TrEMBL record:
Keywords of this entry: FAD, Flavoprotein, Signal
Residues annotated for FAD binding in this entry: T45, S46, V117, V273
Protein name: GMC oxidoreductase
Pfam families, per the entry: GMC_oxred_C, GMC_oxred_N
UniProt-listed PROSITE patterns: GMC_OXRED_2
Organism: Achaetomium macrosporum
Cofactor dependence: FAD
Residue numbers annotated as active site: H577 (proton donor), H620 (proton acceptor)
Biological classification of the source: Eukaryota, Fungi, Dikarya, Ascomycota, Pezizomycotina
Keyword Flavoprotein assigned: yes
Signal sequence residues: 1-17
């Protein structure tokens, strides 16, 4: 018996029954009911959305959320008393994971965080609340093939847009703020009444317009509303914050605290779901939920009458499944875990946004006020900023979070060589050479290969579309150290990584292997994006301010090999958007769940979080995680009402 199997057996021996007490927040097994209709594994963005909707739709059915973390105040990414750079000292707890060394990127490692708190990553993220464009969502359906495109449940843009609208309440800025900053929006992209809030903050740094003007001089056009399905251009992006208080809006508030008391909705904190257990096989429904107390390691089973919904996120959903014996058979065998269900896609297909910067210095001094440096050099300014944030309504720099403007540019608008790049992608998919770029243990898995080919063909169509962005560059100021850099977010990487159980400690955070750059065409796109962003420094506005390039520089940018080395040295391997590790694809394409989010071959078990996306969207993930939760809840409610 392997170490992992022995550890799980020894934990299971501790399982026992407990008496029930009622209430909402639970901290120990003695407070739980004898059984629940629905159990949600993970109290994060999607999980709390589902729990809220199910408990409201079925007052007679009980819902339990099991969360590793606890209830915690979640300040914004830039709240008093911090400056523009320093993180909030009382930030909510987060998982901090470092990947294995990445050989194709000079052995650099990716650093990624995820919320370890009620509210999940919505309680710790950068509050940048953009949505994918319509072509991202359509590509998910295309990757799934005909059976995913023609059923009653579709995840195309038309199938997702209503849930983006439902998932958030957008509050329009005041007329004075609109005149001051030229904000634009279209309320037809919104319309929800959910207590998850977004708005445009009543503040910008004084030099925000510098890059804004320069982007327009590069022929990038402003888009009136980037949340309605079309976002190629310059975008205003809402911030996930309350429109009056300016404080962070997150799932722990909007889908838990704000909807209590609700007699059928329980939240168990400081507990880890070890695995789901099928005593009589996966054709029975539903499984038990084996759970561990973080306080004393006591292990117990939660009995479920309806179904189990795993919402532990892209980094932890795979490990719950793998500990359950659901995953790649070869990996489970190496871990000493009996194979319950061979699904090679569990923990595969890891994607994230990554990219290097283009950097410069200014030779002409700025004459703008205020700039971020005032937060550290001007005590009066900072004191006034704190007072403005604490006013009603909140105002001043602390309402800006990390910024709310970005450009999104398609590959055809960046380089005339896009046809060559797209042809390479199509050729590797149709010639079967793409399998060599997959993780070694998956290169002979026919379903994974078929799914990767389908993804590549969908991405080839996406990348050849002039209206579909492949580059993001967010900005808020150009002042050092927050500025003087234009970051190149590669929105649609071709490389695929893995999330695997830690074999030396099965209950510890997982082992991440990002494998960025393992598909060499990613470097073609990195080079195209860096060369495009260098054109920023040639614009009249940037020349007026004496912008002088410091990286990569003309000599490096003019040589493919040198620029590849620059990318390897300067790249950030994770912009904190991991996804896609329990992909919604047919089983014969390496999928883990179907369009109804049920795990293939496992009754009474679904996955509802950002891991189900087959392709990482060209957006930060928070708004999408809410929409996935809303759509999943609707699917589940309709199914159970039909029964």
């Amino acid at each position: 018996m392997g170490f992992l199997a022995a550890a799980l057996v020894s934990l299971a021996a501790l399982a026992g029954a407990s008496p029930v007490q009622h209430g909402s927040l639970k901290r120990q097994v003695s407070q739980l009911r004898d059984k629940y209709d629905f159990v949600v594994v993970g109290g994060g963005t999607s999980g709390l959305t589902v729990a809220d909707r199910l408990s409201a739709a079925f007052p007679a059915k009980t819902v339990l959320v099991i969360e590793y973390g606890d209830v915690h105040f979640a300040p914004g990414v830039f709240d008093p008393p911090t400056d523009w750079i320093t993180p909030a000292p009382d930030s909510a707890p987060a998982w901090s994971l470092t990947s294995l060394p990445n050989p194709d990127m000079g052995n650099k490692t990716a650093f990624v965080q995820a919320g370890q708190v009620v509210g999940g990553s919505s309680a710790v993220n950068g509050q940048f609340f953009d949505r994918p464009d319509r072509f991202d969502c359509d590509a998910w359906t295309e990757a799934g093939g005909p059976e995913f495109a023609q059923g009653d449940i579709t995840w195309s843009w038309s199938g997702m847009f209503p849930y983006f609208k439902k998932s958030v309440t957008f509050t329009e800025p005041t007329a004075d703020i609109v005149r001051q900053y030229n904000y634009t929006w279209d309320m037809s992209a919104y319309g929800g009444s959910t207590p998850i809030h977004s708005t445009y903050g009543p503040f910008q740094w004084a030099d925000q317009t510098v890059l804004g003007k320069a982007w327009m001089e590069m022929s990038i056009k402003p888009v009136k509303e980037c949340a309605g399905g079309d976002k190629e251009g310059i975008c205003w992006v809402p911030t996930s914050q309350h429109p009056v208080t300016g404080e962070r809006s997150h799932a722990g508030l909007g889908h838990y605290a704000d909807v209590q008391p609700r007699a059928n909705y329980d939240l168990l904190v400081q507990h880890q779901v070890v695995r789901v257990v099928y005593p009589k096989g996966t054709n029975t429904s539903p499984p038990l939920v084996e759970t561990r107390s973080l306080a004393d390691d006591h292990l117990f089973n939660v009995t479920v009458q309806g179904e189990v919904i795993i919402s532990a996120g892209a980094l932890h959903t795979p490990t719950v499944l793998q500990r359950s014996g659901i995953g790649p058979a070869s990996f489970l065998a190496s871990a000493g875990i009996p194979v319950v269900l061979d699904l090679p896609g569990v923990g595969s297909n890891l994607q994230d946004h990554a990219g290097p910067p283009v950097t410069w210095n200014y030779t002409q001094p700025y004459e703008f006020f205020p700039l971020p440096s005032e937060m550290t050099s001007n005590a009066t300014f900072k004191s006034d900023a704190i007072a403005a944030f604490n006013a009603t309504p909140a105002g001043g720099p602390y309402t800006l979070a990390g910024g709310n403007s970005a450009i999104y540019v398609s590959l055809p608008h960046m380089t005339p060589n896009y046809t060559t790049i797209v042809s390479k992608i199509r050729q590797m998919a149709t010639s079967n050479s793409a399998a060599s770029y997959l993780p070694p243990d998956l290169q002979s898995e026919s379903s994974i290969i078929a799914g990767y080919h389908a993804q590549l063909l969908a991405l080839a169509n996406l990348l050849s579309n002039r209206a579909a962005p492949s580059l993001e560059t967010p900005w808020a100021t150009s002042e050092f150290p927050a500025g003087t850099a234009a970051w190149s977010f590669l929105l649609h990487p071709l490389s695929r990584g893995t999330v695997r159980l830690n074999l030396t400690d099965p209950l510890a955070p997982p082992v991440l292997d990002y494998r960025a750059g393992s598909n060499p065409v990613d470097f073609d796109m990195h080079l195209a994006q860096v060369r495009y962003l260098r054109r920023l420094l040639e614009t009249p506005t940037m020349q007026q301010h004496g912008a002088t390039e410091t990286g990569p520089g003309a000599d490096v940018a003019g040589d493919d090999e040198a620029l590849v080395e620059y990318v390897k040295q300067q790249i950030v391997l994770s912009f904190m958007h991991p996804c896609c590790t329990a992909a919604m694809l047919p089983r014969n394409r390496g999928g883990v769940v179907g369009v109804d989010l049920k795990v293939h071959g496992a009754k009474g078990l679904r996955v509802v979080d950002i891991s189900v996306l087959p392709l990482v969207p060209g957006a930060h993930l928070s708004a999408t995680a809410y929409a996935v939760g809303e759509k999943a809840a609707d699917i589940i409610i309709r199914e159970w009402k039909g029964r």
